Prior knowledge:
The chain has helices spanning 9-15, 19-26, 36-47, 85-101, 125-143, 162-166; strands at 53-58, 61-69, 72-78, 106-112, 117-121. The radius of gyration is 16 Å and the shape is globular. The chain has six helices and five strands. It has a five-stranded mixed β-sheet. By secondary structure, it is an alpha+beta fold.
Amino acid sequence: xxxxxxxxxxxxxxxxxxxxxxxxxxxxxxxxxxxxxxxxxxxxxxxxxxxxxxxxxxxxxxxxxxxxxxxxxxxxxxxxxxxxxxxxxxxxxxxxxxxxxxxxxxxxxxxxxxxxxxxxxxxxxxxxxxxxxxxxxxxxxxxxxxxxxxxxxxxxxxxxxxxxxxxxx
Length: 169
């Protein structure tokens, strides 16, 4: 039986933004750790939503926030902005699906503290099928001998890998 590489929520998040970044991360090519966006993400994680429990690790997932409301488990994912909403939704859906496979039924909410917004995310069968396709494609990308070529997108200016992809420009 062939080994199936584990996929994480972070892999899902970046897959919907930049498949090249997924390849770089999975091949342990570290991004610039002093990048401002990484530092802001760490700061938000440490300082927002203080009442909720923080960073619960379950297998290959790390849930930012978890709480119970009227007997319903609610997991939250904190994001700096809603700019990459599809990525955020799919990452949270991945967490909901992973919990569901373990017999834990939860609802999800995306939290955008700087925007004072939140969005509910629910597990659906359609979402599960999209996740299965994304996971298969992530595994295909990671098996490639070299990363996919860089493509200029709006995220590049904020990416901690930008110098790796665009150093010669």
